[in-house]
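User: Please predict the structure of the protein below. I'd like the answer in structure-token form so I can feed it into my own downstream comparison script.

Assistant: Understood. Taking the following sequence of 90 residues as input:
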Amino acid sequence: MESAREAPNVMVVDDELGFRDLMKFELTPRGYKIITAADGEEALAKARSANVSVVISDMTMPKLGGLDLLAALKACDPAIEVIIVTGFAT
């Protein structure tokens, strides 16, 4: 019998509460544990103390933007997968 794999912890980082809530609403029923952060600095602190496998991050945020967060996360743990999203078309 095959054992069920545990779903990865996913961190959602966005300065807009609505996007964080939407992602939590959509992913939690699928078995993911969702960790949220309002900016890159908060996300980096939480990533250091939690077992995060995937980060979904906004590109433009106060304090520490998405690309800077990506670099900092990869320096901490190169295995973390990062998906960067943006609302800007350019």
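That's the full token string. Residues 18 and 36 are 11 Å apart (CA to CA).
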